[in-house]
């Protein structure tokens, strides 16, 4: 049984949240903080304060900081995949262009958090690397499907390499735009077309 949740003492007692609802609330708070705070820098005390619970109660729902950070990272990755999923019915090239435009917008919004996510995976942190690889493969699936490519090993390797290039260039562009956004999108699209010999 979880310890009783704190009450302000004013008004009728609040309905107790289910464990699933409370976990979802705590993850949502983490997501709200991501635009300004990389997940590894989220403060457990601040998350608990925003949720109106004690730090010790947060650790009832997530046994460790790593468990909480992993849950927030997975939720952010799920949102990214949903955000980039092409709208059905559009021609393949428009679907790919829309995905790319939305990706640039995502990095603009979550730049520090996204860089921390990518660097954490590159740095060998196992829980970050696992989520990162799952997300990268899901995005490769989206591009292969959007462009109606044969789903073979070579094309997946080329799309994966293009994502690595795209991540790095977009991160640099958001920090120091050396070209306009339309020019950036055209450049990234041209690189993908050349890689795939389209």
TrEMBL record:
DNA-binding region(s), chain positions: 43-62
Gene3D superfamilies registered for this protein in UniProt: Tetracycline Repressor, domain 2 (1.10.357.10)
Region annotated Disordered, chain positions: 1-21
A GO molecular function held by the record: transcription cis-regulatory region binding
Transcription regulation among keywords: yes
InterPro entries: DesT_TetR_C, Homeodomain-like_sf, HTH-type_TetR-like_transc_reg, HTH_TetR
Stretches assigned to the HTH tetR-type domain: 20-80
KW Nucleotidyltransferase (keyword) present: no
Annotated keywords: DNA-binding, Transcription, Transcription regulation
Protein name: Transcriptional regulator, TetR family
Species: Geodermatophilus ruber
High-level lineage: Bacteria, Bacillati, Actinomycetota, Actinomycetes, Geodermatophilales
């Amino acid at each position: 049984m979880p310890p009783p949740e704190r009450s302000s003492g004013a008004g009728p007692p609040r309905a107790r949240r289910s464990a699933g609802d409370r976990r979802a609330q705590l993850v949502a708070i983490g997501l709200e903080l991501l635009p300004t705070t990389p997940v590894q820098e989220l403060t457990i005390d601040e998350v608990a304060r925003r949720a109106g619970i004690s730090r010790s109660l947060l650790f009832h729902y997530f046994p460790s900081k790593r468990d909480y950070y992993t849950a927030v990272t997975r939720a952010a990755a799920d949102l990214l995949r949903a955000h980039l999923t092409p709208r059905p019915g559009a021609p393949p090239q428009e679907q790919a262009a829309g995905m790319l435009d939305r990706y640039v917008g995502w990095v603009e919004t979550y730049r520090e958090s996204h860089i921390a996510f990518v660097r954490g995976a590159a740095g060998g942190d196992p829980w970050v690397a696992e989520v990162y690889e799952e997300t990268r493969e899901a995005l490769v699936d989206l591009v292969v499907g959007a462009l109606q490519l044969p789903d073979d090993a070579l094309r997946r390797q080329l799309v994966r390499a293009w994502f690595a290039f795209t991540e790095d260039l977009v991160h640099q562009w958001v920090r120091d735009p050396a070209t306009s956004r339309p020019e950036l999108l055209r450049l990234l699209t041209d690189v993908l077309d050349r890689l795939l010999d389209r």
